[in-house]
Design a protein that fits this description.
Keywords: Membrane, Transmembrane, Transmembrane helix. By secondary structure, the chain is an alpha+beta fold. It is 43% helix and 24% strand.
Amino acid sequence: MRRGDILGIFLVFWGLSLSIYSYEVLGDIPLTALGAGAFVTGISLLSTVSKSPYREAFDLLLKAYADNISRVLEEFGASSRAVYLSNGSILVPLSGSPRKVPSKIQNSLIVGERGGYYLFIQSPISSEDLSPDIEASLYSVLVDSLGLCDSVMVSRNDEKIILKIRNSRASQVSARFSQVLGPLAAHLACSIVAASSRANYSLEDVKEEKGDIIASLVMIDAEKGSSV
């Protein structure tokens, strides 16, 4: 087993335990966020294996990740679509316009300024691990590494990116998670697209049809805070 695998497994279980204990027992949101960050970092380390022997464990861990993020979203009453940033992190609008992305983001649970506050979440996806080829990156992570679907088709319509995720096998998520971040497979796909293309995206629309997921992503201008 690689050292990275050992570290990844440790971070996953330590982060998950810290998140649950901090949220359920202490009611401490910053510690909960710290645990969630360690958890997703561990998943990111494990998911770099091209032919992962941990796929069943990934399913359980991703489900736990989605459940914990859902609790945080419920706690803050988040309902607007998230913005997926080029570095692999995510901004969830808490107030103001969901299109107004702050140009400077501090490493804090809540970021932004008056008129536009966001919940800052680190996704399991890192831009450092991905090819600039969006389709290749989607296949490498979702199909080859995690086995969450059969294939991912990418097309462009005007300024949008359309994804068709065939035969999604990702776990079901809560209504709140789906409302803000989309189905789990689409959520991960959005992070991959943003990180691979080094651009900010928001999930504009998503449909589920007979096991397939069709997602429409629109690019977000970080400086002007509008779609481009």
